[in-house]
Design brief:
- The chain contains five helices and 17 strands.
- By secondary structure, it is of the alpha+beta class.
- The chain folds into two domains: 139 residues, Elongation Factor Tu (Ef-tu), domain 3 (Beta Barrel), CATH 2.40.30.10; 128 residues, 3-Layer(aba) Sandwich (Rossmann fold), CATH 3.40.50.
- Strands 1, 2, 3, 4, 7, 8, 9, 10 and 11 form a nine-stranded antiparallel sheet that branches. A six-stranded mixed sheet has the order 14-13-12-15-16-17. The chain has a two-stranded antiparallel ribbon with strand order 5-6.
């Protein structure tokens, strides 16, 4: 892959009829914490910058980076560059994957929004980190690209998916039509974000039920009715177990084909650094 072959591929997918993952040249950067700030009561935004942020690539709403942390012995083990990719040591370093929430190429600043949960490696780091702290960031390894052919969009997820949903809503054309469902504990976890005029945003409050339990999101989503004959893109992420009935619903009841749906388990109860895909 040449240095800019992925740019041609992104344009090709956008002009086509089917979604696709597009690989990027994978970078490894040492970045500096510029600032942190709370977004509602459940997300903490970490803004990263410094010379290492120069030339960072961000092209589509769904992209991820890995924050790399020292292991339990305080040792920081890093991947090595291998052409346009990275070669990771074994055992794998301690790292956590986060959505590229925003990259400002003019200011050379990268935002990642961390869902707070006590005991989480990245969550505990984000809460206590001070400006000036340096951290290695790998990626993004690529992006999930969708063609510009959809009549409607349906987005849904819990608070771990909120940064990605917010980015989708910001980056898609402002005249898109659809729905966005976000499950949060209560109104304190709701955040301000840009929502196209014809997208219905619904905050689903689960109350005292712990995240990753219950069916509040599923019950809310089942109220959606897709107009016949209109092609709809469906994107849902959250706890893997919660997604199981939603996978079946999207496939069997909504009748959305694999080419038009993206359902990913961002996390799984009791499993560190879990990732699963439809």
């Amino acid at each position: 892959m040449s240095l800019d072959a992925h740019l041609d591929r992104i344009a090709e997918v956008k002009a086509g009829m089917s979604s696709a993952k597009v690989a990027y040249p994978i970078g490894l950067r040492e970045l500096e914490v510029v600032s942190t700030r709370m977004l509602g009561s459940g997300l903490l935004r970490v803004t990263l910058g410094g010379e290492g942020a120069r030339g960072f690539e961000s092209h589509v709403p769904e992209e991820h980076v890995r924050l790399i942390f020292p292991d339990e012995h305080g040792q920081l083990r890093l991947p090595e560059r291998d052409g346009l990719s990275l070669r990771w040591p074994r055992p794998l370093p301690v790292s956590r994957e986060y959505t590229v929430r925003r990259y400002d190429p003019a200011a050379e600043l990268l935002d990642v929004d961390v869902a707070l949960h006590p005991g989480g490696v990245a969550s505990d780091w984000a809460v206590s980190v001070e400006p000036g702290t340096r951290i290695y960031v790998a990626g993004p390894p690529g992006g999930y690209v969708t063609p510009e052919v959809y009549a409607r969009y349906l987005f849904a997820g819990d608070i771990t998916a909120l940064p990605a949903i917010a980015r989708w809503l910001e980056m898609l054309p402002p005249d898109i039509v659809g729905w966005a469902f976000v499950e949060v504990a209560d109104a304190s976890e709701e955040i301000e974000m840009t929502v196209p005029a014809c997208v219905q945003l619904r905050w689903v409050h689960r109350g005292a039920v712990p995240i990753g339990h219950g069916d509040a999101l599923e019950r809310a989503l089942r109220e959606v009715r897709l107009p016949a004959g209109e092609r709809t893109f469906v994107w849902i992420s959250g706890e893997a177990g919660v997604l199981k009935p939603l996978r079946r619903w999207v496939r069997d009841e909504l009748g959305v084909p694999p080419t038009d749906r993206r359902i990913t388990g961002y996390w799984k109860r009791g499993v560190a650094d879990f990732d699963d895909e439809d």
